[in-house]
Amino acid sequence: IDFDLIVESIKDLNSLVGEGISEIEHTARGARLRRPEPLPVTLYRNGIVVGHGAFRPYQHPATQQCLQDIVDGYFPSELQPRYPDGV
């Protein structure tokens, strides 16, 4: 596992979505600025945790696909149903 490559790819994806930039949230009384909630990815020697999910070993095919998506410069396809507008 090339941790440096994964971290660099995550940084690139974060910059694509404007990390740290506030969004307009419409409310009943108008609108306000809010920062999107980050989705943490924790890398361990033997696996990962995405968000507040379960530990996932690197040998698991879904974990391998998630990391391959990231390294290829894409948001993980497994997140599309929960985050259709991106993370």
TrEMBL record:
Residues 36-87 form the SEP domain. GO terms for biological process: proteasome-mediated ubiquitin-dependent protein catabolic process. One of its GO terms (cellular component) is cytoskeleton. It is found in: Cytoplasm, Cytoskeleton. GO terms for molecular function: ubiquitin binding. The keyword Isomerase does not apply. Interacts with GNA12, GNA13, RND1, RND2 and RND3. This is UBX domain-containing protein 11. The gene is Ubxn11.
